[in-house]
Amino acid sequence: MNYSKFFKIASLVWGLMLMPLLMNAQSVDVWLTKGDQSVKLQQQSSLTFGSNGNVPNTITVNDANTYQSITGFGFALTQGSAEALSQLNTSTRTALLNELFNPASGNAISIVRISIGASDLSNSVYSYNETSGDVNMNNFSLAGPDQTYLIPILQDILTINPNIKVLATPWTAPTWMKTNNTWIGGSLNASYYAAYATYFVKYLDAMSALGIDIWAITPQNEPENPFNEPSMLMNSTEQKNFINNNLGPAIASSGHATKIIAFDHNCDNTAYPIDVLNNSSYVDGAAFHLYGGNISAMSTVKNQTGKNVYFTEQFTSTNGNFSGDLGWHMQNVVIGSMRNWSKSVIEWNLATNSSYGPKTPGGCSECLGAVTVNSSSSITRNVSYYIISQVSKFVQPGAVRIESNTTASISNVAFSNPDGSKVVLAYNSSGGAQNVKVVFGGQSFVYSLPGSSAATFVWSGETNPPTIPSAPSGLNAGAQSSSSIALSWSDNSNNEVNFEVQRSPTGSGSWVQVATPGANTTGYTNTGLSASTTYYYRVRASNSAGNSAWSNTSSATTHNQPTINPFNTVEAESYTSQSGTQLETTSDTGGGQNVGYADANDYLQYSNVDFGSGASSLEARIASNASFTGTIEFRLGSTGGALIATVSVGNTGGWQSWVTRTVSVSGASGVQNLYLVFKGGNGIGNLNWFKFGAGPTIPQAPSGLSASAQSSSSIALSWTDNSGNEVNFEVQRSPSGSGSWVQIATPGADATTYTSSGLSASTTYYYRVRASNSAGSSAWSNTANATTQGTSGGGIVSGGTYKITNKASGKVVDVSGVSTSNGARIHQWDWANGNNQKWVVESVGSGLYKLTAVHSGKVLDVVDASNANGKEIQQWDYFGSANQQWQIQDAGSGYFKIIASHSNKVLEVPGSSTSNGTKLVQSNSGSGDHQLWSFENLSGARLGEVSDEQQLTPSFSIYPNPVQNGMFTVSLPQVEGAVSLKLTDLSGRAIGIWSAQSPEIKITLPAGVKRGLYLLEIEGPSIRTVKKVHIQ
Q1: How far apart are CA 136 and CA 986, in angstroms?
Q2: DSSP E strands, 559-679
Q3: Which of 614, 658, 875, 880 has the fewest Cβ atoms within 10 angstroms?
């Protein structure tokens, strides 16, 4: 016998027999939380690996396949939760914090999320600098609720575990930096981007000085939620521009290693984080909540960007139940996010008092803390305490998720800790107990997991211990443009989890991590760089065992930023950067694209614009269909820099109806960064191109000329000044509009109005206007006409209530359906004495009136403020617009024309219809009876009597009794004899009637008269008038 061969074979067999025996000897710790609360985070009897039969719910764990590394698990530490914890006595608070955060003896919570300034679970709303305009942050201070409550508790936590990661998030910027200057909603004003970046750096500096290093920030909590108190909107374009141009560079140059994590909102929007992550080298990844969408959104973003994803907020409700919340959060928030690449799980909120506060007035009133502070020595541990502790107690920071399969009713996720131990978290979603078999390294254990319960399994052995990956090599950097450099390298390992890419301005220090591309990556493009600048790069591979050595260092210099010649046509879409706008195909001459969808404070930025020795004029190609007139400000250096020109952007007739505006320029010379800042409301207008001029140019023609009769001898003109370089305007008049034009005035530069006087009554005049300077005259504006008022009619009793009847149909002006809603159409109907047929006529000055429906309090209004013939009339709340103001022009024989101030068109019954329900419209003035209206004063006075705005003859006065409410004295010093007084409301309803001898009449109001506006009619031997009185 060959004994040597025998012993070799025997040794091999013994070794193969011994391997499963060694595995069998491994002990498995089991920790259980049951949905019925009979067991909560309690250790169960240990299990051991062995050979087991077939079990339907089999989880196979394979540590050879690894996924993301784990940053940690934890809670939001709001100012309110810190205040609640501060109410505990020292011994109780110290014990609780050690229970939560101690990595050796406690639940090993490893990450906390805090707010920068107030969150909705703060005792009030505040920021660290409410000094308006303090862009250098000279008055920045942490003093207040955070310094009183939050910072001391956070310092206690860091004493227990100095390795706690701190994630900081603002709910709002200081109010003076916002577009609405309030705590709720609004967005960050682009002119304060730089100041807000300084605010962040001041915060990092101040916290660091207190021993609190901020691991990461997100620029805005829930940037699509404008309703929280506090809150602020920030769309993806705004966020990436703020990060790339301000926040990223500010933090990079501050010396802080703080990460920037984007988004921080729900899983129902993947476009937002993908846009920011793929267009910013400063961003480490994206943060998510799950108040909307599906948790798989995290994988979508990870796969399309190669950057990290984090789960940062989910609350449990005071209205929930333990079992339901435990199950939903375990399956979706903890296991779900981990299986979709999340590096963290953070629940909201750590602690509340017994009233579920503190909170802001508009803050969450049903957010349940992980613990409730009942008194100075008593707490209650709630469901989120167990949701997080069930995993944080066992999965260490730096662990990696490893492969495990899913089963029908058992959700699970597996991890490998840095010390080699393995962890499996499993949740049984069925109502009854299920046998669960966990297979690892060829051996297994079986556990009966109760229904609606979570179990964590932990064992120490390894079959495939990870090794540190090999260093990448052959790193090469190459400039792609003036703002980007592309990197490529060789991947020399097959067990990395990700790579770390670092950048330095010198190559010898100040390295900053700019990206963490995933496993098997061999390239990365660094964007958002400065032109003509050299950058140095290095890269290494990482996994749970550690980091490889660094690759070689490689450098590249970005391309020069080409200068822009502004005296050639500059296409709007050739901007260097922008905020808020979008590109669209243009129908303008030459085709291509234009910049559109511009709202207030959106901007375009053009780098290296060479104005040479100076520019004196500017042409801009614009189009707009807005109902208001916005502007484009041309500024140097920043959105708040020196203003060199302003282009007015009024309605041009459509979003693709293009006109060229010409304005003067001052203060532009040398090479500059040019900013075009949009001002006004939302939907200001579109821009196709602009071009500067070195000398004077012919001014642009004025537009929008309108003419409105002011009296029987005067007509007022108004127009839009589309040029900034005219010396004066030329106003011409004609009796026919087709010839015989006579120049009547030359208003100066920037004029937009003129009144033509000395005219004949009831006569039509035509007008046109143009702008002039030394270069020449513009084209003529449109022609406008108006007819002077007649002289046979009387005035209007302002405040009187009228029945308004059409001459052609005999029907009255009526609000359809007696509606009180905005937008209800105005039609004609038979008189029925309804309050929807009665109109209060009130002067608004300049010969114009508003007509208010008695039943609704809403006024006669031309729909959409249109100038078009045939546009319908509606009722709407009065806000002083010209389409709500009317001229009432005497047409003789007791009839009047009702003329819209904004369009100079008259109210008519279309087609001279005599049918009930025919909708009233505006149209050009003509000679038909369907455009004539009679006014019958229902309040007792007749049209043609003295207005309360005119001098009353004889005069009279009304004095309230200073001692007795409800008593007044009417003084008529120039009237003798008996006088009658009648007080009515605006609908004509009588309130009281008195008769007495003048000159002084004492009246007492009936009981129950309410405050408001009334009409007092006075009639006597030498007086007959109506006066508005306000009873207070």
Answers
A1: 57
A2: 570-571, 577-579, 582-585, 593-596, 603-610, 617-624, 630-636, 642-649, 654-664, 671-679
A3: 880
**pTM, to two decimals:** 0.52
Residue 204's φ and ψ, nearest 5 degrees, are: -60, -40
**Assigned fold of 801-937:** Trefoil (Acidic Fibroblast Growth Factor, subunit A) (2.80.10)
Token digits of residue 427: 């949740």
Q: Is 874 left (phi over 0), alpha (psi -120 to 50) or beta?
A: beta
Task: From the options 3.20.20.80, 3.40.50.11030, 3.30.420.40, 3.90.700.10, give the CATH code of 73-394.
Answer: 3.20.20.80
Provide the 3-class DSSP secondary structure of residue 160: helix
Task: Give the whole-angstrom CA distance, residue 537 versus residue 489.
Answer: 11
CATH architecture of 27-70+397-465: Sandwich (2.60)
CA of 930: how far to CAs of 341, 669, 915, in Å? 73, 62, 12
Which helix (DSSP H) or strand (DSSP E) does residue 208 occupy?
Answer: helix 193-209
* CA–CA distance, 820 with 852 (Å, rounded to integer): 12
Q: Which amino acid, 960? A: P
Q: Locate tokens 């046979």: which residue?
A: 792
178 beta partners: 188
The per-residue pLDDT for range 539-557, each reduced to its tens digit, is 999 987 899 999 999 999 9
Residues designated catalytic? 222, 313
Task: Give the C-alpha separation, 661 to 721, whole Å.
Answer: 10
- State pLDDT tens for residues 784-835: 999 886 543 344 667 788 999 999 999 999 999 999 999 999 999 999 999 9
Q: What pLDDT digit, counting tens, does each position of 251-277 carry?
A: 999 989 999 999 999 999 999 999 999
CATH number of 957-1031: 2.60.40.3080
Please state the φ and ψ torsions of residue 1004, each to the nearest 5 degrees. Answer: -120, 130
- DSSP characters for 267-317? ET--HHHHHHHHT-TTEEEEEEEEEEE-TTHHHHHHHHH--EEEEEE-BEE
Estimate to the nearest angstrom the gap between the alpha carbon of 845 and the chain centroid.
39
For the segment 446-495, what is each residue's pLDDT rounded down to a tens digit? 999 999 999 999 998 655 556 899 999 999 999 988 888 999 999 998 88
**In 3-state terms, what secondary structure has residue 629?**
coil
Give the type of residue at 1: M
Distance CA 689, CA 204 (A): 42
CB atoms within 10 A of CB 51: 10
The CATH H-level (homologous superfamily) assignment of domain 473-557 is Immunoglobulins (2.60.40.10)
